[in-house]
Design a protein that fits this description.
The structure is a single chain. The protein starts with 19 loop residues before the first strand and ends in an 8-residue tail after the last helix. It is α/β, with parallel strands linked by helices. Strand 2, helix 2 (about 65-70) and strand 3 form a beta-alpha-beta unit. It is built from 13 helices and 7 strands.
Length: about 400
């Protein structure tokens, strides 16, 4: 369900009575904090809404605390500094939600790319009965900054397209949204990475979403925190969300990709050892071990990263057993097909592919049930130990 409206303002909006907490994660945003506070005040001063503005700072040490202390003399503004913690926008937002005084919460960026003047529109949308109101750049009436270059536009649209299968929202990448805290899923069910906390909430919480069009503007002060690490972490986050929503089919696909990379290592080792003078049967036996170790490690880090990690030595041994069983099925399938079927006897490569496919499925089933523990990893183990935030 979409809610449209003018980007120019919200005259004729009904008087609001529900108080709201506005959570703004910050990192080196001291120059923007006064403007954020003043524009929020201007947007809500005559609406009858009781509000607070809560900045969650990732230990900027840039004078942000002093700025907020000065603002607090005239406005309902406060700051919580997260020290000795990984820099992570999503975790900062979750901390802000936890510390908020009110159940109705708006989340927005500190760089004023999200217009505070649209806060009231999000709250009105929330009153329509939805669980989450999202400020959207890509629905009718929304827009992005005209100064965006081709690369930034392309990057934004590709990131949005990658997320679209997960949610029915035109702008799943939005960081400007309103929620009721009483709707939120349990904190233990959330496993965000980086800066797309709204996408995390939409996928894992499955809320009823209303979109409100906004005009997105580039920052005027300070530097963007976007870098290649954030983009890589976004891809990691997408992988987790696809696994959560689509389950074993996605896990099997990842398992197959890992297996393909292991096949390359296996082949390279087999050929390389022969080049060094190793007898071909011995080379075939030796090349198995770096390949199976690589597959075990990469599956641990990628395919089953959300599972509770077992001791490495024991898990590696289990994976070796699973791989040997899978290889036995692979070899057995190939032997049976080429021995008892003229079609496959004349097309051995087809039998080879069938063997690999069946063996990989058996290997996956054993790994999924036996090698990688089915329990979810603790949240603190899922989030990276050190993270640049956006």
């Amino acid at each position: 369900m979409n809610e449209t409206g003018s980007n120019s303002g919200h005259s004729a909006q009904p008087r609001m009575t529900h108080p709201v907490s506005i959570v703004v994660p910050t990192f080196h945003e001291a120059a923007n904090i006064p403007a954020v506070a003043d524009r929020v005040h201007a947007a809500l001063a005559e609406t009858g809404v009781e509000w607070e503005l809560l900045f969650i700072d990732d230990a900027s040490d840039d004078g942000s605390e002093t700025v907020v202390e000065d603002l607090a003399r005239r406005l309902p503004v406060r700051m919580k500094v997260r020290r000795n913690m990984p820099r992570d926008l999503s975790l900062a937002v979750l901390e802000g939600i936890r510390l908020s005084r009110f159940d109705r919460i708006v989340v927005m960026d500190a760089d004023l790319s999200h217009p505070p003047e649209r806060i009231l529109d999000l709250l009105v949308a929330l009153d329509t009965g939805c669980d989450m109101a999202v400020g959207s750049r890509y629905m009718p009436g929304g827009s992005v900054d005209r100064n965006w270059g081709l690369w930034r536009l392309l990057n934004s649209h590709i990131a949005t397209l990658l997320a679209r299968p997960l949610v029915s929202c035109s702008d799943p990448m939005s960081g400007f949204f309103a929620i009721d805290r009483r709707w939120l899923p349990d904190r233990k069910a959330l496993r965000p990475i980086g800066y797309k906390i709204a996408l995390e909430l939409m996928v894992r919480g499955q809320p009823r979403v209303t979109e409100v069009p906004i005009a997105f503007h580039d920052r005027h002060l300070g530097d963007s925190k976007m870098n290649w690490k954030q983009q890589f972490n976004y891809l990691r986050h997408l992988r987790r969300l696809y696994q959560h929503k689509f389950g074993n089919p996605v896990r099997l696909l990842l398992f197959g990709c890992v297996g393909a990379s292991g096949f390359i290592i296996d082949t390279a080792g087999y050929l390389g050892l022969q080049q060094l003078g190793t007898e071909h049967r011995l080379a075939r036996g030796l090349s198995f071990w770096p390949a199976v170790t690589w597959n075990w490690w990469l599956n641990r880090k990628m395919t089953f990263s959300d599972r509770k990690p077992l001791p490495q030595g024991r898990q590696w041994a289990k994976f070796v057993v699973a791989s040997l069983v899978g290889f036995a099925v692979n070899w057995g399938c190939y032997t049976v097909l080429t021995t008892f079927s003229d079609v496959f006897a004349q097309r051995r490569m087809l039998a080879f592919i069938c063997g690999i496919g069946l063996g990989s499925i058996v290997n996956f089933l054993i790994a999924n049930r036996y090698v990688y523990h089915a329990d979810l990893a603790p949240v603190e183990d899922v989030s990276p130990s050190a993270m640049e935030r956006s």
